[in-house]
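Phosphatase PAP2 family protein: structure tokens wanted.
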Amino acid sequence: MYHLDVTLTRAINGLAGGSAAFDALMIWTSRIGVPLLVLAVALRWWRGADRRHSRHVLVAAGLTFLLGLFLNQIIVHLVHRVRPYDAGVSRLLIERSADVSFPSDHATATVAIAAAFLLHGTRRMGLAFGLAALLVCFSRIYVGTHYAGDVLGGALTAVLAALLVARLYTEGTRLDRIVTGIL
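Answer:
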């Protein structure tokens, strides 16, 4: 499995350096992708015809995002994977990270948003966020900071978090009505 992970990582990261414009796009996506997605979610708070349902989905996305990153913090204490650039697998295009490689927080954060939208019946937005998440995930491998398996692990953490939130945070409950009625 490690061999496949290294092969995929090298294949994607090996594209780096072929085009200065594409390198710049991937660096920008890697740096700003998560904040842009969070902003896109936050701005939806005041939009939509079915405001209660829309806000429920937004709260679920936020909870999924937070739960996914919390789960990652547990995982990093159990798995101490060296970054691919430190193992000689990838060439780094951005600054070095101070933490371990597995799982990718960027993948968790972006996939969490997409998964929450999809699981709560907002298919069109979920697919749009899913495409953005794929781009961010790809960029993290492209810039050399993650193995492909790190990104997959982060995505799986996000899906688990989304499933838990969908099960535990039910639309129409008293708590949901209070939270979605704010502003």
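The radius of gyration is 17 Å. The mean pLDDT is 93.

Cheers.
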